[in-house]
Amino acid sequence: MTSVLRSFLPGSTSTTRSNDCDDGYSVEYSFAMEYSGPPVNHDIPQVLPIDVRRIPTAAVAAKVLKIGDENSSSSGTLGFSDGQGDSNQLSGSSDVEDTDDNCKARVDYDYGKSTADLPEISSSEEVGLRDCEDEAEAPGPQIRSPVVDFHEFTTSDVNSDGSDNEPQIVFPERPVILDEVKGLCHRCHRKNRFADKEACIVCRANYCSKCVIRAMGSMPEGRKCITCIGYRIDESRRGSLGKTSRLLKRILVDEAIKHIMKSELSCEVNQLPPHLVCVNEKPLTIEELVSLQSCPNPPKKLRPGRFWYDKVSGFWGKEGEKPSQIITSQLTVGYQIRQNASNGNTNVLINSREITKRERRMLQIAGIHCEGDPHFWVTADGSYQHEGMNYVMGKLWDKKRVKIACKALSLPFPSDVSNPGGEEVANNTGEVNLKNLDRKQIAKFLLVGGDQSGTSTIFKQAKILYGVPFSEDERENVKFMIQRNLYSYIGIILEGREQFEEDYSIEMRRLQHIDQPGPSEISEEVDEQNIYSISPRLKAFSDWLLQVMVSGNLEAVFPAATREYAPLIEKLWKDEAFQATYKRRNELHKLPRVANYFLDRAVEISRINYEPSEMDILYAEGIALSNGVASMEFSFPILSQDAYMESDNQSDPILRNQLIRVHENSLGGNCRWLEMFEDVNLVMFCISLTDYGEFYEDATGICTNKMLASKKLFERIATHPSFAQKNFILILNKFDLLEEKIEQVPLSQCDWFQDFSPLISLHPHNTTTPPLAQRAFHYIAVKFKRLFTSLTGRKLFVAPVTGLEADSVNLALRYGREVLKWDEEKLTFSMNEDSVESIEASTT
Ligand SMILES: Nc1nc2c(ncn2[C@@H]2O[C@H](COP(=O)(O)OP(=O)(O)OP(=O)(O)O)[C@@H](O)[C@H]2O)c(=O)[nH]1
Ligand SMILES: [Mg+2]
After folding, report:
1. Ligand nearest to the Cα of 619, by number
2. Which atom belonging to ligand 1 lies closest to the Cα atom of 452?
């Protein structure tokens, strides 16, 4: 039987179009295409209005391309009819061959302008047929265009899987056309290898920009030659469905492209034929395919083929191969999984499937014993147990080592561990996805240390460094703490003033007594001359403050009393006696070093409207902000100086880190709360380098060296079962203070450091020997390294730090990140070696 192609051309029926699409043509025409016919099972007639640009000379509205069931008897004949119903028969075209009773075609164009303005359109081009004239002129080999070959629609096209389901229509296939000459347009046969071409997604025939619209019409099923409409796409082109091309962008307006791409993706005939996807040996029905493709975590780039699916765990793979993906579990697709679905030969079963060697290796890395041919039951969340036992042994996906192992062994790992099925991903916005990403990649650092070791300083420094803002509450708390501390520093100075005043009086009296031994008027005179004496009002304030401090009520009085006493601080600051004492503040041993930083701005800080700067917050000492447990998330910014580093070493801002600071006191007796932190990746243990020369009296009155106390805490944490496999970095903090202290206080103050005997150069200008502080640091570091190795058999990393210096803290934290990276690389490397070995062993 013959299909009839009809061109409906009002006014002019068979003109030849010079199909120039040069730039500069801005005339648009629109046309619609309607197609109906049995091979295409369209419920709705496809009428697609399309704006086409750059069609020469006139505004043309070509509309309605219709393939209908007319003239079914005219074999080898093209029928054209004009708008008035006249028809022109173009017979003898051997290119036209109809094999389908049911196929009908009519091509109608409606030009909105007078014939003078019309482009010339050849009779056959609307349906993508070879233009005889073009062919005659066309250079190069004369390749004949594909024949119009409508598929015979038979009952065999109705696919039935034997189930009760409705029979499914199987769309016909068309052989692809393999051009022998590259760069040839299939319609005009002009050759230009460099010009963009558009290929038919069914037969792969290429068309140049001049011919594409003529060959493909309004593209109701996307980029198909008109003769390929109703045919299944070439599966190798599935990946490009819906992705527009440069050529289309050049010749069509955005709206039209959008429309075509939408149709290309959504029209029924272009969908993956369900019967070609076989899951657990069962060809899918359309319903099964839809449920598979619309599940929250569908198989990626699904193509026709044979697959296996473990519906309990969600593992998915090609038949005879290892799993390639974890899709949503519990989908009702396919038969029961076969034991040899993935061609495993390990005698280890997961959900009735014998797993592959790689999977067994992954289980071993996860610490799961695979001896004795075990049968495991693994659910979608990674919970695993021995088959038949009601005891969950653990969760695969919670183990970091498993993630690394899967990466190294090219095994799938759930994209979102907390939700392996991906339900949330499907329902939520990008914000949630970002959170998931963060959760996935976060590296946790636990910063822990003893009293005054500097953990809160390092924590605050990290906040400032990585732009993690202090909250309003934190700022307010620190403000009050700084103001309270200020009063305590002033109290210490006032206490010192009393002492200096008394010392001064005694000295003056002694001197005057030497000059004029005699009665008591002298003492009154001495008191008046005492440079450390203050006015009665300030004296009253001083007495009150010292009293508050002695009674331990400073916290109760301040910050409430700040407003009231701020003016007095200003007065005090101007007072000569106070200033004289302040000048001698180095003699006041109770005054912390950091006090200088705040006392220099005492008047400003005591004001009610004082706002602490980030530096103030950093320097603030006392119980606030990071008292107890504090946590922050951050990422390392890529620094410009990193540019010369290998790209691998550059920190990726997407990689998130979490710094958790915890003080010894928050760990409870025997550090029993430490197990709360068992999921951290790195422990940063902080010790103050000045501890070696400091002592404290415990509750029983025994004097203990602080370094030994820190050592004890270190031992306890290093050997804690929760941290048995963790990386450790020892932060030796307050290096700046060590530099000063080591010159005055020998390291041997601490019993553990008795054998520190650095060679001291006799030459004062010797520059080859490192400074004493450096050697002391090195010595302490080695002491701790040996201790750690003896306790754990592992390696300890050590970093010198000055908590008050940003660079120093930055380096230490980046060092931590590097340690984690090395660890991951080491693991990956060892696993790769192992897997290569095991794969080699299995193949030999
Ligand atoms: N000079 C100097 N001072 C430091 C350094 N690190 C911390 N400090 C100071 O040492 C004191 C104690 O530091 P913190 O960070 O509060 O110590 P901590 O670990 O929080 O200990 P607690 O305060 O007992 O909780 C503060 O006054 C800090 O300003 C440092 O590297 N150099
Ligand atoms: Mg502190």
Report:
1. 1
2. 21
Domains along the sequence of the chain with CATH = 1-271 (no CATH), 311-425 (no CATH), 445-469+625-830 (3.40.50.300), 472-613 (1.10.400.10)
The residue behind tokens 């056959």 is 124
Can you tell me the distance from the alpha carbon of 705 to that of 254, in angstroms, rounded to the nearest whole number? 77
Per-residue burial over 24-60, b = 16 or more CB atoms within 10 Å of its CB, e = otherwise: eeebbbbbbbbbbbbbbebeeebebebebebbbbbeb
**Out of 406-410, 458-462, 612-616, 686-690, least confident range:** 406-410
**What pTM was computed for the model?**
0.52
> What digits encode the pLDDT tens for the residues 469-524?
988 888 888 898 899 899 999 999 999 999 999 998 888 888 877 766 655 555 56
Check residue 700 and give its pLDDT: 84
450 CA from centroid of ligand 1 (Å): 11
Whose CA is closest to atom 29 on ligand 1? 619
User: What's the 453 CA to ligand 1 centre distance in angstroms?
Assistant: 6
**Window from 430-434, 449-453, 633-637 with minimum mean pLDDT:** 430-434
Q: Counting ligands in written order, which one lies closest to the CA of residue 591? A: 1
Q: What is the CA radius of gyration of the chain?
A: 42
Nearest CA to ligand 1 atom 21: 452
Q: What is the number of the ligand 1 atom nearest to the C-alpha of 460?
A: 15
Q: Which helix (H) or strand (E) holds 216?
A: helix 212-216
Ion ligand 2 nearby residues (CB, 5 A):
456
Q: Could you give the maximum distance between any two Cα atoms of the chain, in Å?
A: 149
CA 240 to centroid of ligand 2, rounded, Å: 60
Does the annotation place 735 within a ligand binding site? yes
Q: Which two tokens stand for residue 114?
A: 């007078």
Residue 455 CA: nearest ligand 1 atom is: 19
State the closest ligand 1 atom to the C-alpha of 735, by its place in the atom list counted from 1: 31
Distance 621 CA to ligand 1 centre (A): 7
Ligand 2 center from residue 828 Cα (angstroms)? 39
Distances (CA, A) of 314 to 171, 358, 360, 361, 386: 31, 18, 17, 19, 18
Bridge partners of residue 673, in order along the sequence: none
Q: How far is the CA of 618 from the centre of ligand 1 (A)?
A: 9
Average the pLDDT over 657-672 and give the result. Answer: 83
Ligand 1 atom at shortest distance from the alpha carbon of 665? 25
- In three-state form (DSSP H/G/I as H, E/B as E, the rest C), the secondary structure along 96-143 is EECCCCCCCCEEECCCCCCHHHCCCCCCCHHHCCCCHHHHHHCCCCCC
State which of 470-474, 475-479, 614-618, 830-834 shows the largest mean pLDDT. Answer: 614-618
| Residue whose pair of structure tokens reads 């299909």 in the numeric block | 3
In testing the pocket of ligand 1, which one of 447, 455, 457 has its CB within 8 Å of the most ligand atoms?
457
Using a 6 Å CB cutoff, which residues line ligand 1? 449, 451-457, 592, 594, 619, 621, 663, 733-734, 736-737, 802-804
Q: How far apart are the C-alpha atoms of 379 and 460, rounded to whole Å?
A: 43
- Which DSSP string corresponds to 629-680? EEEEEE-PPPPGGGGGS-GGGSPPTTS-EEEEEEEGGGG-GGGGGGGGGTT-
Burial class (CB in 10 A: 0-12, 13-18, 19+), 714: buried
Cα–Cα distance measured from residue 166 to residue 146, given in angstroms and rounded to the nearest whole number: 34
736 annotated as a binding-site residue: yes
User: What pLDDT digit, counting tens, does each position of 780-824 carry?
Assistant: 999 999 999 999 999 999 999 999 999 999 999 999 999 988 887
Tens digits of residue pLDDT in 237-280: 888 899 888 888 888 888 889 989 998 988 888 888 888 899 99
SS3 category, 366? coil
Strands 443-449 and 682-688: parallel
The Cβ of residue 122 has, within 10 Å, a number of other Cβ atoms equal to 20
What is the pLDDT, as a whole number, of residue 748? 93
